[in-house]
Write a structure and sequence with these properties.
583 residues; Gyrase A, domain 2; 4-stranded parallel sheet; 20 helices; 13 strands
């Protein structure tokens, strides 16, 4: 690659906006947005003349004409025309698009600037429970959270991953006693094979049937909370065995979580008393039905009465609100977070909103520090009910991932039987796991979606296999030519044909789409863009011969192919999805 990277925006809409803002601001005598938007009638449309004319008390077409006459778009646009009551239609020049494409292709970040205001972002996601299987319900939190981590890291933020596992509470008394009854080695063998649900169910059944076991379990909870050394060691063994199994799931899923990211409920237990003391000192704590609570403004029950956030139960015990407030304090004061992202299911919306409200009342979320509930919907079966196994139980996540790879293996063998065993296995894993992730991420996260194997593994439509195949297809062009991507010269790009223009416009919009998906915590917007890009490339390839073109055009189109493949691979990578070179 040649040429120095230029991190000023390569998005034509943003470039035009930057050129027009001084013109609009001078006319308005104040900072003014030109309102540049995509258009069905041209490459872009400037809509800001109409509101500006209203402010100035002038004819909108006259204001638009003044903007056209400013000359700031000379060279950028081959056509600038006033339409209707005062819209300005823009057609970008081939030279301008060529230059933006060359800059993008020469830049390792493909035109994506590093944020000028980096933040420290804490992402709370995944959060399985110790001694319980990871089910399909954990899929969305883990996959969405992983994508947000990748997007924010790519933007230049410092990202702290926190896997807030359920590793504390009353059930651990019976779990530890059941561990002792079985024997640590026997339990370790079972849990290591993923029998977490059976272990939990056995303990629960024993607790229901045996008063003696109940007494032992309750005593063990007291010992655990009191810091008993032996009980603590047994608890740590139980957590370690469960964590080892969680890691096998994370490895299959291909996410970034490690043991260093564990931040379980137990981690915040020592700070809960201080949290209550600080609420007392701030004068926020009240008594309600024997419990100690805070009443955040704006929250009411069905009768319209103020709704309390219970901080300490009437029994004196702490609860989720106490833990979550302690988390906020830790993440802001110890970790220095500017942004807290909670990738948690939609049903927790009110609870988290109340926690955030109380944290703001207490001064723990000061101005400039944001806490966001990244809510998501459910995974449904074809009957549009919660996805279940044939037996009616929740679907184990590891079983779902294994089935995805098995199904993908059959597809890959059918599509390309020439792959050797090692490559076939690697491609099948990329396709199967990618299909599951993409089906989740391509849906607006706040909505439920139907889990459909045939649709998500299809090589047609808005799916990971379609995008992965588009990438592999581009790379096959280079193999047929006996070249690789490093052999292309970005400076050879010349945008002439309509299909070339359409492809370049899609590529150049990518940095803005990535920035938008990051800021709005909406990975589905990037998915939609990548699908549009792959479709646009297909049209380009159908209308613009690459290897059979003359030498100059061939070099340009090979550079465009390489730029498109890199853009697809980078976008898929930000979603946590691999882009195989061959399929």
């Amino acid at each position: 690659m040649t040429g120095a990277p230029d991190h000023s925006s390569v998005d034509p809409l943003e470039r035009v906006t930057a050129l027009l803002e001084p013109v609009f601001s001078e006319l308005a005598s104040a900072p003014t947005d030109p309102v540049v938007r995509p258009s069905d009638h041209a490459d872009a449309q400037v809509n800001g003349a109409l509101p500006l004319a209203k402010t100035l008390g002038r004819n909108p077409r006259e204001v638009a004409q003044g903007i056209v006459d400013s000359g700031v778009l000379d060279g950028v646009c081959s056509s600038v025309e006033i339409a209707g009551p005062g819209f300005v239609n823009l057609v970008f020049s081939g030279g301008f698009l060529s230059e933006m494409a060359r800059r993008t292709a020469a830049d390792e970040r493909l035109g994506c600037a590093v944020t000028a205001a980096p933040r420290t972002v804490v992402v709370d996601y995944s959060a399985p429970n110790v001694a319980k299987e990871m089910h399909v319900g954990h899929l969305r939190s883990t996959v969405i959270g992983d994508a947000l981590v990748r997007l924010h890291e790519f933007s230049g933020d410092t990202v702290i991953r926190e896997n807030h596992i359920g590793d504390w509470g009353r059930p651990f008394g019976m779990l530890i006693e059941h561990l002792l009854d079985l024997g640590e080695d026997v339990a370790a063998a079972g849990l290591g094979q993923g029998d977490l649900d059976d272990f939990y169910k056995q303990a629960n059944a024993k607790f229901a049937d045996s008063e003696e076991f109940q007494e032992r379990s309750r005593a063990r909870v007291v010992a655990l909370q009191g810091g008993d050394a032996e009980t603590g060691a047994l608890w740590r063994r139980l957590v370690a065995m469960s964590t080892e199994y969680f890691n096998t799931v994370y490895d299959k899923l291909g996410v970034l979580l490690t043991d260093e990211d564990l931040a379980g409920e137990s981690m915040y237990q020592p700070g809960m008393r201080a949290t209550i003391d600080r609420l007392e000192t701030a004068g926020l704590m009240e008594e309600s039905d024997g419990a100690r609570v805070v009443f955040p403004d704006g929250f009411t029950n069905r009768e319209g009465e103020p709704l309390p956030l219970i901080i300490q139960a009437r029994t004196g015990g702490f609860n989720y609100a106490t833990s979550d407030l302690t988390c906020v304090i830790d993440r802001v004061e110890r970790l220095g977070a500017d942004l807290l992202l909670y990738v948690v299911g939609a049903p927790q919306q009110q609870h988290l909103e109340m926690v955030f409200a109380v944290a703001r009342m207490a001064g723990w979320l000061p101005e400039g520090i944001d806490a966001v509930h990244v809510a998501f919907g459910n995974v449904l079966g074809e009957d549009r009910k919660m996805l279940r196994s044939r037996s009616g139980d929740s679907v184990k996540l590891v079983d779902l991932l294994d089935e995805a790879v098995d199904r993908a293996t059959a597809l890959v063998e059918e599509k390309n039987p020439e792959l050797d065993d090692a490559e076939r296995q690697a491609v099948a894993a990329a396709v199967g796991i990618g299909a599951v992730k993409y089906a989740d991420l391509s849906t607006d996260r706040v909505r439920d979606y139907v889990f459909d194997w045939d649709r998500m593994l299809s090589f047609d439509g808005n799916t990971a296999p379609y995008l992965q195949y588009a990438h592999a297809r581009i790379r096959s062009i280079f193999r047929r030519a006996g070249l690789d991507g490093d052999s292309v010269d970005p400076q050879t790009i010349e945008v002439v044909e309509p299909a070339e223009r359409a492809l370049v416009l899609r590529v150049l919009a990518t940095p803005s789409v990535i920035a938008d998906a990051t800021e709005s915590q909406a990975p589905h917007r990037l998915c939609t863009h990548l699908f549009d890009l792959a479709q646009t490339f297909t049209s380009f390839y159908e209308h613009c011969p690459v290897l059979k073109a003359d030498e100059r055009v061939r070099a340009s189109r090979l550079a465009l192919c390489d730029l498109t493949a890199r853009t697809l691979a980078n976008g898929l990578g930000l979603l946590g999805i691999d882009a195989p070179e061959r399929m």
